[in-house]
Amino acid sequence: MKRRVSIFGATGSIGCNTVDLIQRAPDDYDVVALSGGRNVQKLAEQARALRPEIAVTAYEDCLAPLREALAGSGIEVAAGETALRDMAERPADWIMSAIVGAAGLSPGLKALEQGTTLALANKESLVTAGALLKSTAAASGATILPVDSEHSAVFQALAGEKLSAVERVIITASGGAFRDWPIGNLANATLAEASSHPNWEMGQRITIDSATMFNKALELIETHEFFDIAPDKIEALVHPESLVHALVGYRDGALMTHVGPHDMRHAIGYALHWPIRAHLPVERLDLAEIGQLTFQKPDEARYPALAQARWVMEEGGLAGAVFNGAKERALDGFISGQIGFLDMAAVVADVIEIMSGEGLGLAAITLETVKDADHSARARADEAITRRQR
Ligand code: NAD
Ligand code: MG
């Protein structure tokens, strides 16, 4: 029987890799729905190739061009936030959540309410509303599978083991674009420099988040939320070759690790075929050729985001929504040239300082409280950006 699949964020980096895997076995899947943003031509091209029931753009002003691009195809079109939520209600066996940012939360939640299997690339939804995602999945019987490469690696290294035997979880980090830069040069790092990853290509936002290590900060929180591991058992480790994705340390001293090429089709394919290990079109590593793998302790002065992640995990509640909202605005501020590279972490620190006295850890987590916390954090970040504007 064909599996019914939908892809949120189909036109992005994760989305395109997911489409690639599905296109290799077209007879195995019925594609129900695809979503994208402003890249209407790409979405239309994917829709013509995969023949979903519906293609949805996140933006109302992109509806007319999408309709035109799909004219005569018989594929429905829709636009906007409500259309994205409606798309999540269409019955599917497997849904990829690969929208970037907090915008991925609401459609992801709707998908979980349907009891589907959700492949979660959108780490921001776990960071902002982990408890809500997990309780929604528990209530409907839905399964959440990790797609972030480190979390897929942890998931695989945990298979068949008891969580109670876990002593520590180590997720690796490439170190991003400025790993080898003198710290004194970071203040003047340009957008183009921050947008180029040393090891692979991803969406621009996550690439800049790799340079600041905001991405790793989100991933520490994601590890805590996804696997229910205590914050003091979770570490980040710089590993410039990016081939060891994560390690799980057990109480007998063993470290179980996952080593694989840096190709997101591995983690996506693992989630697509889970619990089966299917053949995947990824490179087979030649370790003799690679020769050596190196590791370094991350420099917390260079990457203040890591300490901020520890604050989020200790505080709990709405702290993740505040951290992520402030981070997203700080990133917008850097991308638009309002603030410099180091100002991003400083803006987030300002927001944390202002909001940390507001009882975030005690607040109930609902879609509304998360949206409110996200909104307030963005407003505070805007004020901090104005103060720091150059
Ligand atoms: P991307 O920027 O390449 O693509 C994002 C997708 O989301 C696009 O389809 C875009 O049209 C859509 N989108 C953007 N803003 C939207 C909005 N407001 N509402 C609805 N849709 C919107 O991003 P990406 O690199 O593919 O990352 C997607 C998610 O996967 C992120 O959460 C990222 O952290 C995570 N992730 C990515 C990688 C990677 O290798 N790229 C690895 C691990 C995790
Ligand atoms: Mg990752």
Gyration radius from CA atoms, angstroms: 20 Å
Beta-strand percentage range:
15-25%
Q: What is CATH's topology name of the domain at 3-146?
A: Rossmann fold
Q: Portion of residues in helices?
A: 40-55%
Bound molecules: nicotinamide-adenine-dinucleotide, magnesium ion
CATH class of the domain at 3-146: Alpha Beta
Helix and strand content put the structural class at alpha/beta
- Cα separation of the termini: 58 Å
Shape: globular
Mean pLDDT rating: 97
- Count of helix runs: 16
The sequence of SSEs as H and E is: EHEHEHEHEHEHEHEHHHEEEHHHHHH
- How does the major sheet shape up? 7 strands, parallel
CATH architecture of the domain at 3-146: 3-Layer(aba) Sandwich
Say which CATH homologous superfamily of the domain at 3-146 is assigned: NAD(P)-binding Rossmann-like Domain
User: How many E-type strands?
Assistant: 11
> Order of strands side by side in the largest beta sheet?
4-3-2-1-5-6-7
Unreliable stretches covering 5 or more consecutive residues = none
